[in-house]
C-alpha cells in the first residue's frame, strides 16, 4: 500500500459499534437499562421455586400478580426511556414510585436487587439532559467564547474580565439607608 491509497472503510462490527454509540449518546441509555433490569427480579422471585436436594423453597407471596405487574411496568418504562427520551422525567418518577411500592408488594423489592436498580435507574432518568448538537467539528474559540468567524452577541462583553454594568434606575429618596442621590443600579447596587 502506498500513502496515496485511500483508507478502506471500517468493518461491519466497527460501523455497528459506532452507530450504537451514537444512538446510546442521544438518550438516557443507562437509566433505561437499569430500569429494565430492575423489573426482572421483581417479577421473577414471587414465582420462583428454589430446589435444594429434595426440599423446595417457594418465595410466592399473596401479591404475586402485583409483583408481575410492577416488573412488567418497570421493563416498559426502561424501554420508554430508550425510545421516547422526551418522556424521561415521567418514566423516572414512575420508576422510583414503582420501586418504592415493590418494597411492600414484591419480596422487599426483589430482595432489594430490583428496588435498588429501579431507584438508581429512575434517578438517572431524572438527571439526564440531552446534549447540544455540535456547531462545528473542532472549533477554535476566541477569547470571548464565541466561535471564530462568528460575532459575539451585543450584550456579551468582549473581555470576560469586565463585569457587566447595570443601568441606572431612579428611586425615591430615603428608600435605602443613607442614599440621598436618588440613583441606584438595576442590580441593587448604589451608583456613584
Can you summarize the main beta sheet? 2 strands, antiparallel
Question: End-to-end span in angstroms?
Answer: 74 Å
How many helices? The count is: 6
How many whole angstroms does the radius of gyration measure? 29 Å
The total of beta strands comes to 4
Class of secondary structure makeup = mainly alpha
What's the domain count? 2
Q: Using the alpha-carbon principal axes, give the shape.
A: flat
Estimate the helix proportion, in percent: 40-55%
Which whole number gives the mean pLDDT?
77
| Series of H and E elements | HHEEHHHHEE
Low-confidence stretches: none
Give the strand order of the largest sheet, numbering strands 1, 2, ... along the chain.
Answer: 1-2
The percent range for strand residues is 5-15%
Biased composition (Low complexity): 158-171
Keywords: Membrane, Transmembrane, Transmembrane helix
InterPro entries: DUF6114
Protein name: DUF6114 domain-containing protein
Amino acid at each position: 500500500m502506498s500513502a496515496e491509497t485511500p483508507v478502506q472503510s471500517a468493518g461491519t462490527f466497527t460501523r455497528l459499534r459506532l452507530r450504537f454509540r451514537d444512538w446510546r449518546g442521544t438518550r438516557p441509555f443507562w437509566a433505561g437499562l437499569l430500569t429494565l433490569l430492575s423489573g426482572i427480579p421483581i417479577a421473577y422471585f414471587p414465582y420462583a421455586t428454589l430446589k435444594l436436594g429434595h426440599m423446595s423453597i417457594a418465595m410466592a407471596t399473596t401479591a404475586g400478580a402485583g409483583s408481575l405487574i410492577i416488573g412488567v411496568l418497570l421493563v416498559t418504562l426502561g424501554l420508554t426511556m430508550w425510545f421516547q427520551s422526551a418522556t424521561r422525567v415521567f418514566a423516572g418518577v414512575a420508576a422510583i414510585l414503582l420501586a418504592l411500592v415493590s418494597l411492600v408488594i414484591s419480596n422487599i423489592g426483589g430482595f432489594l436487587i430490583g428496588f435498588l436498580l429501579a431507584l438508581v435507574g429512575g434517578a438517572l432518568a431524572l438527571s439526564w439532559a440531552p446534549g447540544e448538537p455540535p456547531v462545528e467539528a473542532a472549533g477554535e474559540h476566541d477569547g470571548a467564547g464565541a466561535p471564530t468567524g462568528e460575532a459575539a452577541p451585543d450584550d456579551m462583553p468582549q473581555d470576560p474580565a469586565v463585569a457587566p454594568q447595570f443601568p441606572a434606575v431612579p428611586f425615591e429618596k430615603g428608600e435605602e439607608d443613607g442614599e440621598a442621590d436618588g440613583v441606584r443600579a438595576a442590580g441593587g447596587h448604589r451608583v456613584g
